[in-house]
Hints:
Blueprint: E1 2-7, E2 10-15, H1 22-29, E3 48-51, E4 54-57, E5 70-72, H2 85-92, H3 102-115, H4 121-127, H5 139-146, H6 170-179, E6 184-186, H7 192-199, E7 205-207, E8 217-220, E9 223-227, H8 232-237, H9 239-244, H10 246-252, H11 258-263, H12 266-272, H13 280-285, E10 289-293, E11 298-302, H14 303-306, E12 307-309, E13 312-313, E14 320-327, E15 333-339, E16 350-359, E17 362-371, H15 381-387, H16 394-412, H17 418-434
Parallel strand pairs: 1-5, 6-7
Antiparallel strand pairs: 1-2, 3-4, 3-5, 8-9, 9-14, 10-11, 10-14, 12-13, 15-16, 16-17
Helix pairs in contact: 2-5, 15-16, 16-17
Amino acid sequence: MIISFILNGNNVECEVDKNERLIYTLRERFSIKSVKEGCGIGECGTCTVLIDNEPHYSCLTLSSKVNGCDVKTVEFLNANGELHPLQEAFIKEGAVQCGYCTPGMLLSAYSLLLKEKKPYITKIKEAISGNLCRCTGYKQIVEAIQKVEIYGILDNIPSVEKKIQPHSSKEEILKKLSEKKGLKIIAGGTDLLVKERKEEKTHDFIELWGLDELNVVKEENGKIIVGSTITHAELNRNETINKKAKSLALACGMIGSPQIRNMGTIGGNIINASPAADSIPPLLIHDALCVIESKNTKREVALEDFVVAPYKTSINEDELLTYIKITSLEGYREGYEKVAKRASLAIARLSIAYAIKEDKDVFQDIRISIGSCTPMPFRPKDVENFLKGKKRQEALIKEAVSMVLKGIVEKSGMRPSYKYKLPVLEGLLIKILRG
């Protein structure tokens, strides 16, 4: 297929092969060697590029996805032949050693500085968390980003006219699914492309990017409608989600790295059906309904029934997850706790989503969902009902937590991992219920 896009400020066009990845297109078709393949599975960050000024892993991006987009590599920073202030800062502060990670670091930092001229250190660390460095220990990199203004003011983005490409409609996608078997739906691709590489298979993909009708968050009839192709980053920033489904916003902000959050979608996280999926516990406490459509049918299934086994859902081959309907919980004390081996790029070893409504220390409504602890999504509704209408007291809290732990063991048996998971879960639940 022929794709056209903006590359470092210039309109370009090229022919790409089926399932060709952006890293190959940039390196082999445009001879841009600053984009390097390290891990090939979206963890090291050496292949980072900016797509519409947001960091993405080019090793997990099909080239067809950038059709009509604005793509930047590190060459963009000194397109005028002079070092960019950010590059200057990296040199002066000793943030460059072997240099292998530097292009990705620079692009991630540049994307952040476009949004915030003087970001706090926590923002800087978060922005570069998807880029691994084995030399500097990160201290000099963080300091360089902090001191950019010393070496010059960041320039504005040049105005470039984008050529918006026509995209398929939902109806066209459903028609293709009904006519041809074996098609693989791809949205973010952050799991699917890793699996394809591991299995050394080439799938016949049907692509959802650019499907604007599924890239929405809206309110209808007291429900929040979330389109299945909206990314984790978009949900994390969305005003409605932050106000009325805070746990979901928090969970989406903890998934993977900034690059993964810019790529991965809420629909993909559900369809993948991992017991450790970050979005599932928050969706459960919001009584999520999955809207499943085919060419001739449309059905709604509760999320807790839609996931039928680890990594398996009840979706049929000719169906598409189009929307997720959730209940607004505005006014609740809501949150998400995640236990993982590291702060970024780590799956949950244990997670809890909660929403609690209280009046004078009396539990009016309480919703709890626990992830990465049982094979299937787990919401202890018996414990929720037990607490409703009762005054918050230490003895009551301990009894409720004991009921949760007992329910987990009854559901899954006594697993070896429970020796450390259950005590951690107990401590977190007590803290949450205490308020």
